[in-house]
Amino acid sequence: MQEFFRADRRAGGTRHENCITRGGWGNPWLGEMFRQLKIVCSIEARMTSTRLPGKVLLEANGRPMLSHLISRLNTVGLIDEIVLATTHNSTDDILEQLAKESGISVHRGSEPDVLGRVVEAICAAEAGVVVRVTGDNPLCDPAIVQHMINAYCAGEAEYVGNARVRSYPNGMEVEVISARSLLTASENATDDKYREHTCLFIRDSPTEYSSIDVLAPEALHWPELSLTLDEIADYELITAVIEALEYEREIFGCSEIVQFLRKRPDLVALNKKVIRTVIE
After folding, report:
1. Separation between Cα atoms, residue 100 and residue 118, nearest integer Å
2. For residues 140 and 220, is the Cβ–Cβ distance under 8 A?
3. Does 5 have pLDDT greater than 60?
4. For 170-207, what is each residue's pLDDT tens digit?
5. Strand partners for 43
6. Which residues make Cβ contacts (< 8 Å) with residue 228, sequence separation at least 6?
């Protein structure tokens, strides 16, 4: 187990260092209480990406990127159900088919209203707790997902994530939110930017939603490294990582990726010039 994450508690204005230890988070009674709620993981994905259309179906080691992500999330024991939140577009029929073949649920909704689409998906799944990941991040580490859920189950915040304060490599983003908070956010968020980004309204409303930002341990601290899939250069890097590491271990983690890429600056350089979208 990775230890000594650091977290920034927003609503109370206090900062906690080394909140996660070998013993886990907080009160075990609270953790058991939260485990009575259904934990649903939502994957946001569509075929009509502006910069790299169809990217979630690009293959590495003979499998689509989305399949790699689903396989990784299936190893997270705390997740009760995984649902693909895709769009009504006919181009996404193939994603629905892949999801069903992979044994996960599917919900289809609005393309521009991503928040509304995810809320519909989690309501259909009767979620109590939502784990949010995106199809752009096929290398998402199951161990990090598990840690985020454990942090949430400590009962200290309505939102726990590592997306607002960057410390992990880009592509390891995970957000865990109460379903109730996501519902109220959807009711109150009217600006287009909040409809387009599922958790942005919650992240921008620290007085309304208590939150914890989980920071990477020193061994995984590499926010300059990008493992997210935006452009063809990213695909080349991610494919190189999968081809190099899957032979040793099908489900490898962020630690193995970082150790491998520290020795391969030539691969790290592949997507250095890609300009990332900044969400504000």
Report:
1. 18
2. no
3. no
4. 999 999 999 999 999 999 999 999 999 999 999 999 99
5. 84, 133
6. 136, 137, 170, 171, 234, 276
